[in-house]
Structure formats: structure tokens, C-alpha cells
Amino acid sequence: MRCDRKMKERSSEIIGRKIIQSILEGDFSINEHLQPERDLATLFSVGRPTIREALQRLERDGWITIRKGMPAIVNDYWKQGNLMTIVDILQYHEEIPDELIKYMLELRISLSPTYVKDAIVHNRVKVIALFVPLDELSDDAGSYADFDWNLQLGIAKLSPNPIFLLILNSFKDIYQKMAEKYFGSQNHRKQSYQYYTELLNAILKGEVEETEALTRKMMETSLILWSEKVKGGD
After folding, report:
1. Domain HTH gntR-type spans what residues (predicted)?
2. Helix axes of 83-91 and 2-24: crossing angle, nearest 10 degrees
């Protein structure tokens, strides 16, 4: 019984992945109906309970909307998805899509200045300690990706608002890949190092408003730099 349940769960996950892949590859378009459960069961040679389980998982992760008595409909996953949708998208790409990095950089413009300011107001000394590895930072993408992740995560932990940390934790498994792609540019590393240095100096001086302004400016600059790189720049 337990073995059968595990096999059923594995089957539903496999089916779910196949449907996601079909959506990403355009075999199923946004707002298009999926096949009825009975047809999907025939297609995948499984029972309808397994199909139902797969569809429920897809709805939970923002890919489809299940409608009673009607076939499920494909969502606009960029608008109706959630954090798990991003994880699913990345599983089907050997490299992080440039578009996703752009969206993440846009998100950081909204989030980072606030949690940086909050953390400095409430835990200034502990934030300063996060910059200790900066002196030994190697000029390569992996080192910068590690430093940036640890810095952002550390600052978010020191913010009194736990939502910021929950959001960052959701991207833990994919942040490194995105950051390494971004920091593959020497110019991006140079700009970020300058930001880290200026941010630390502002924190040491206790210039809280300046730290918020510096962070917002750097997040906006990062988006511009990435957009230029995608268009063919460095």
C-alpha cells in the first residue's frame, strides 16, 4: 500500500512536469483548455485520481485553474503564478532565462532599499559585521554571487520584518545561478564592489537615509547594466 502510494505520487509529479513543459514550449497556450481528466488519464496511461492529483499540484503552483465540471484552463503564469512557478520554470532551463533575471532585478528595486534601511536602524553593528569578507572577495562570478547572497540574506535576517527573509529564502536554490550569470560581467562586479564600499562607509557613519538611497540607486543601476548586456553590451 505504501509503495503504491509512492508510485502514484511519482506518477503525478512526472505528469505535472510534462504538462508544465508543454506549457513552456507553447503546446498549451495561455487561456487554452487542457484535455478533460479522462482524456489525460488515457494519454498518460494512469487513473483519473493520479491526473487529479497532478492538476491540483499545477493549480497550487499557479500554472492552471481548475473549474468544476469543465477542463482546467492554462493561466498566464507570469501574472497568475507564484514563487513555486519560478522554481518550476528554472527546472526546464539549463541556463537562467535572461527575462527572469530582469524581473528579479526589478523586484529588488522595490524590496532591497527597505530591508537594508530597517536592518541598519535596528541592528547596525551586526550589519557592519556582514561586510568582513569584502576585503578578501575574489574577482570572479562565483565569489561575488556567494558574497551578494550572504549579504542580502544576512541583512534581511536583521530586518524586523520577517517577510523579506521569507521571500529571499524562496529563491535560495536559484539565486546563485542568477547571480553568477549577472556577475559574469567584470563591469557588473566593479559596479557592485563600489556599491558595497559606499554602503559600508555610509553605515559606519550612521547615515541611514543615505544607505537606503545608495541601495535603490544600485538596484536601478543593476537593471540598466543587465538590460545593456542583454542588448549586446558588456
Report:
1. 9-77
2. 80
Tell the CATH topology of 2-86.
Arc Repressor Mutant, subunit A (1.10.10)
Neighbours of 115 (CB within 10 A): 23
Radius of gyration, alpha carbons of the chain: 22
The better pLDDT of the pair 91, 44 is held by 44
pLDDT in tens, 203-231: 999 999 999 999 999 999 999 998 888 88
Q: Residue 67 pLDDT more than 90?
A: no
3-state class (DSSP) for residue 33: strand
Q: What is the DSSP string of 38-72?
A: HHHHHHHTS-HHHHHHHHHHHHHTTSEEEETTEEE
Residue 7 pLDDT exceeds 50: no
- Chain centre to alpha carbon of residue 144: 18
Q: What is the DSSP letter of 74?
A: E
CATH architecture of 95-230: Up-down Bundle (1.20)
Cell numbers placing 183: 556577475
Long-range contacts from 40-49, C-beta under 8 angstroms, 24+ separation = 40/15, 44/11, 44/15, 44/18, 46/11, 46/15, 49/8
Q: What is the pTM of this model?
A: 0.72
Taking only the tens place, the pLDDT of each residue in 182-197 is 999 999 999 999 999 9
